[in-house]
Design goal:
The protein is mainly α. It contains 20 helices and three strands. Strands 1-2-3 form a three-stranded mixed sheet. Strand 2 and strand 3 form a beta hairpin. Helix 4 runs parallel beside helix 14, helix 11 runs parallel beside helix 13 and helix 12 runs parallel beside helix 18. The chain is globular. It starts with a strand and ends in a 5-residue tail after the last helix. The model has no long low-confidence stretch (mean pLDDT 87).
């Protein structure tokens, strides 16, 4: 059942309005940050108010205006979109409070531009989650690229300039690939509307044409999802402030790339057509190479943010691989990992930012004994690290279990071995940080000077770490008519089963 409802548009508009209000409040820091905080709460309220209806089979839709007689700037909330929208709306609240503490305690310049661009990123992410068709998706995809560019450029030094140019080159090219694929899809099908199970079929064009369109659109998503060898922009973007890194890795940009891959696989081509074309296997092996290679590269990184960046590259390919397996359980695991990785990785990056602000340390080799002075921060880091490795009772285990079962369902148990190997590598590159923090003594005559604790930074870290555990213990944690993660993920693939999932 479809209901015409303005809430999808209002959720997006709230973030865009906040960006405007932040910009005009540049002389009043408290007022500026109030707008961002209020907007994050309102957006979350609007999104989560639709969750119960989506679980009951209601699709909320709203068209702002029509570009042609048949194509409109249309927002629509289905289960797949709700997973991503609720995730982004939920995490904007803690990362907003964290940003306030970080930017003030680190005495960052140009804070007004930072908060305005951050709000624009959140609004465009919401537009991507709720896009009803390929053209609407593309428009918000490009808005996200442009609005996140000044965040990467934030430091305004030579390193930031080079990194931001690299970021813009990669992501703008990926957008044009997506547009080319969108035009091609419309020319052969006459529609751009997402449909569970896909809307393309072999009788619409030659197989090589469909394969070409698939490559164009998947490459576009793979750039932002940092699938190797299209990942070069992501480590370079670590020059940005740590809250920006958390945004890029956990809430926006890379997650929109992974979400784009899932949309194209499940709602444009569909599992039936992809099985006939036989091209999804190529994507699966690209994801496997990325998972293993990025994990080994992460082992060699001494800079904490760069180690986390290469961890992100590998973890995102879990999602891509899950989608490429074309089985219901693998798709469910991919959607679950979209959430799981976001909650855990935002925790890790916020912990890294807290370390930087309090100690000015960037390299892991210098972090001996910091857990004695920062037990809460490093405790949260330990929880998120164990979750990334797939430890039971933390949310990462549930997503990886479903991915593994999906691989077995597809008759490809080799991919289970890949995930197990990746989990062991994750332990190898993350847990030594915890060991050094808690089980190595502080240097004799330690020259480090620990800054004051900022509770604006510490409370969000605790919130996301606790959330990772609670959702790991029970993904149906929340009451009826609220956001129930596992049920929402199941709903996201149910309709697609009728569209012909491979089994």
């Amino acid at each position: 059942m479809t209901e015409i409802d303005p809430r999808p548009f209002l959720a997006i508009g709230t973030a865009f309005l906040a960006a405007l209000l932040v910009s005009v409040s540049h002389k009043y820091p408290n007022v500026r940050e109030m707008w961002s905080t209020v907007a994050s709460v309102i957006m979350f309220g609007l999104v989560i108010s639709m969750a119960g209806g989506v679980l009951d089979g209601v699709t909320y839709e709203y068209t702002l205006f029509y570009l042609t007689d048949t194509i409109g700037l249309t927002m629509r909330v289905d289960p797949a979109g709700m997973i991503f929208a609720a995730l982004a709306a939920l995490l904007w609240m803690p990362i907003n409070f964290y940003s306030i503490g970080y930017m003030r305690n680190n005495h960052e310049a140009m804070q007004t531009g930072y908060f305005a661009a951050f709000a624009l990123c959140m609004g465009s992410t919401m537009g991507i989650a709720m896009a009803s068709n390929l053209l609407t998706f593309f428009i918000f995809y490009e808005i996200l690229t442009i609005s996140s560019y000044p965040l990467v450029l934030h430091e305004r030094d030579e390193e930031a300039l080079l990194a931001s140019r690299k970021y813009l080159a990669y992501t703008l090219v990926s957008g044009q690939l997506f547009l080319a694929g969108t035009v091609g899809v419309y020319c052969i099908s006459g529609t751009m509307d997402f449909r569970a199970g896909g809307f393309l079929s072999l009788d619409m064009a030659s197989p090589w044409v469909l394969q070409l369109l698939f490559v164009l659109m998947i490459m576009a998503g793979s750039v932002k999802a940092a699938v190797m060898p299209l990942h070069g922009w992501l480590p370079a973007a670590m020059v940005a402030p740590t809250p920006v890194s958390a945004l890029l890795h956990a809430v926006a940009v890379v997650k929109t790339g992974a979400f784009a891959v899932l949309r194209v696989l499940g709602f444009v081509f569909g599992p039936k057509l992809l099985s006939q074309l036989g091209i999804a296997d190529v994507l699966a092996w690209a994801a496997v190479i990325t998972i293993i290679a990025s994990s080994f590269i992460a082992l060699r990184q001494d800079n904490l943010k760069r180690r986390l960046a290469f961890s992100t590259i590998g973890q995102l390919s879990y999602i891509v691989l899950g989608g490429a397996l074309l089985t219901p359980l693998a798709f469910k695991g991919a959607y679950l990992h979209l959430v799981a990785h976001a909650v855990m990785k935002i925790t890790l990056f916020m912990c890294a930012g807290c370390i930087i602000v309090r100690t000015h340390l960037h390299n892991i080799s210098e972090m001996n004994g910091i857990g004695h002075k920062m037990p809460v921060t490093m405790g949260a880091f330990a929880v998120a690290s164990l979750g990334i490795a797939g430890t039971p009772f933390i949310i990462g285990f549930i997503s990886k279990w479903n991915l593994a079962m999906g691989a077995i369902q597809a008759g490809k148990p080799l991919f289970v071995a890949v995930w197990v190997a990746s989990a062991l590598l994750a332990m190898a590159y993350l847990m030594p940080v915890v060991r050094m923090a808690f089980f190595k003594p502080e240097p004799v005559n330690d020259p480090r000077r620990y800054g004051l604790i900022s509770y604006c930074m510490l409370i969000p870290i605790c919130f996301t770490a606790i959330l990772a555990v609670l959702l790991g213990v029970n993904p149906e944690l929340f009451p009826p008519d609220f956001y129930r993660l596992a049920e929402m993920a199941s709903s996201a693939i149910t309709a697609g089963w009728g569209g012909g999932w491979s089994d």
